[in-house]
Amino acid sequence: MRLVVLADTHVPARARDLPPRVWTAVDEADVVLHAGDWVGPDLLRQITRRSRRLIACFGNNDGPEIRAILPEIARVTLDGLRFVIVHETGAAAARDRRLAAAYPDADVIVFGHSHIPWDTTTTRPQDGRPLRLLNPGSPTDRRRQPQPTYLTATIKDQTLLDVELHRLPRPTPARPR
């Protein structure tokens, strides 16, 4: 099962559209996971139409129209792996412990908000099982990151494999007229 992991797309506030490479990945994926901050409902409608399956939540920059469609926290089991998709997770310090306590049944937590790519595995204190934390960064609003980013991964035999951070070209600044 092929996954595309997105967050903080901010369309149309920070970009008019997703980069073509991201659309290609969406078209080829079995499941798209999006951790909020869509900003406008048009992108949500487009990804819903183009993806085979979309699992998503809303973010702090999403208004009532998106909040009426998406939950604050999305949960899904894919090939035996339990995913939680949530936008905000608080400060980076002690994030792994906080999330392990908040979502004790999750195997993978996908989050956004910071626009900073994140991929760590921690051990749950309650039972010693691994917990994977993923933030894809942003494909449109890199903020202080060197490049815009998104993630892909695969699931096979109840295992998350091939997690890859994709770096996109920096946007070309608009030329003054």
Main sheet specs: 5 strands, mixed
User: What's the average pLDDT?
Assistant: 94
Low-confidence stretches: none
Helical residue percent?
Answer: 10-25%
End-to-end Cα distance, whole Å, is 47 Å
Strand order, main sheet: write it out: 3-2-1-9-10
Principal-axis shape equals globular
Would you mind describing this structure in some detail?
With 177 residues, the chain is an alpha/beta fold. The protein contains four helices and ten strands. The strands form two sheets. The protein has a five-stranded mixed β-sheet, with helices on one face. Strands 4-5-6-8-7 form a five-stranded mixed β-sheet, covered by helices on one side. It is globular. The protein starts with a strand and ends in a 10-residue tail after the last strand.
Summarize the structure.
It contains four helices and ten strands; from the N terminus they run βαβαβαββαβββββ. By secondary structure, the chain is of the alpha/beta class. The strands form two sheets. The chain has a five-stranded mixed β-sheet with strand order 3-2-1-9-10, with helices on one face. Strands 4-5-6-8-7 form a five-stranded mixed β-sheet, with helices on one face.
Topology of this structure?
Blueprint: E1 2-6, H1 20-28, E2 31-34, H2 41-50, E3 54-56, H3 64-67, E4 73-78, E5 81-86, H4 95-102, E6 108-111, E7 118-123, E8 130-135, E9 149-156, E10 159-167
Parallel strand pairs: 1-2, 2-3, 5-6, 6-8
Antiparallel strand pairs: 1-9, 4-5, 7-8, 9-10
Summarize this structure as a short list of keywords or feature phrases.
single chain, 177 residues, alpha/beta, five-stranded mixed sheet, 32% strand
